[in-house]
Amino acid sequence: MRKRVLVLGSTGSIGTQTLDVLGHLADTHEVVGLSARSSAELLGEQVQAHGVGAVALVDENVAQGWSAAGVRVFAGADGLCQLVRHTEPDIVICGITGAAGLPSTLAAAAAGAVLGLANKESMVLAGPLVKAASAASGGAIVPVDSEHCAVAQCLAATPREAVRRVILTASGGPFRGRTRAQLADVTVAQALKHPSWEMGPRITIDSATLMNKALEVVEACQLFDLPADQVDVVVHPQSVIHSLVEAVDGSMLCQLGPPDMRVPIRYALGHPGRVEGGSRPIDITALSGLTFEAPDREAFPCLALGERVARTGGLSGTILNAANEIAVDAFLAGRLPFLGIADLVEDALDSFTSEATAEPDSLETILALDARVRSHAAARLTASTR
Ligand code: MG
Prior knowledge:
The protein is α/β, with parallel strands linked by helices. It has a domain of 142 residues: NAD(P)-binding Rossmann-like Domain (Rossmann fold), CATH 3.40.50.720. Helix content is 47%, strand content 15%. The protein has 16 helices and 11 strands. The strands form 2 sheets. It has a 7-stranded parallel beta sheet with strand order 4-3-2-1-5-6-7, sandwiched between helices. Helix 1 links the parallel strand 1 and strand 2. Helix 13 crosses helix 16 and helix 14 crosses helix 16. The longest helix has 23 residues. It is globular, with a radius of gyration of 20 Å. Bound molecules: magnesium ion (MG). The site of magnesium ion has 4 residues, from helix 7.
């Protein structure tokens, strides 16, 4: 029996790379469903290429005009969860960016699937809910985030009580080495030029501000049940070592390889084993010249905001992420300077302190706070640009 794979966000960066890997795994894996927000044409090509029987299109207008022979179409945000239940997948690759990916992640966790979790926001907003749903259904959570995939592999070789700390590597983004003053007038085009990884626009801006690493600190605490003071960050511009685990005996374990998201994607598709999936032998001599440096928390204050959230727990991740999504959209639209992103997020964390420590006990609680923080941040933006 081939494994049934559902790819959520199939037209995005993670989705297209997942389908590239799945193209090499046709004997063992079957693509049973795909979803896109509105990229109808590419979705149609993917359905043809992989013989897929069901899709979801989040944009309802696009969904109305889309059809393919023998393909079931689900529409709207709810359509994602309907697609999860309809396809009964063994593996779900959650490649949707942002809080928009949370409901379908939860549906996949409740369905007992292996979650290939590229949607880190699911862990940041609702880690306890996703973990509980997955455990109750007999599913598994496998991070499709290069750092966390590395940590998972290193932790598999280290008894939990022997872990001293987890060290997440960060490329430093396009502005590594700049002072805070030198970041005041950077442009959208400069921020979108990532030196080592090719990714979607949201996460590329998050890499430039180090908010991506901030979210990943919270994600690591949730995924691996670690206290905030056991998760460190080191800047490693070559993006070859994807993260490390330090044990109490002074050993450091790491996972390394070229920066390529298809490696963690293969790890999730192979779980609990390994699949080749089109990978090629690596020339280790091409990976020489590795350097490490401490992050500059003054120039990149988003990192400290993430560490604050990792210490606070509760619903603080929802506040951090919602404000950041508004801030990044505003930066991309030219309505907010680069340094304004961290300011807007910090303002939201300071404005919602009484909500921050409550437990994320339901999807409704999380989405209600998410909406309140978004309106708050949007109002701040309007006030500041008036
Ligand atoms: Mg990552």
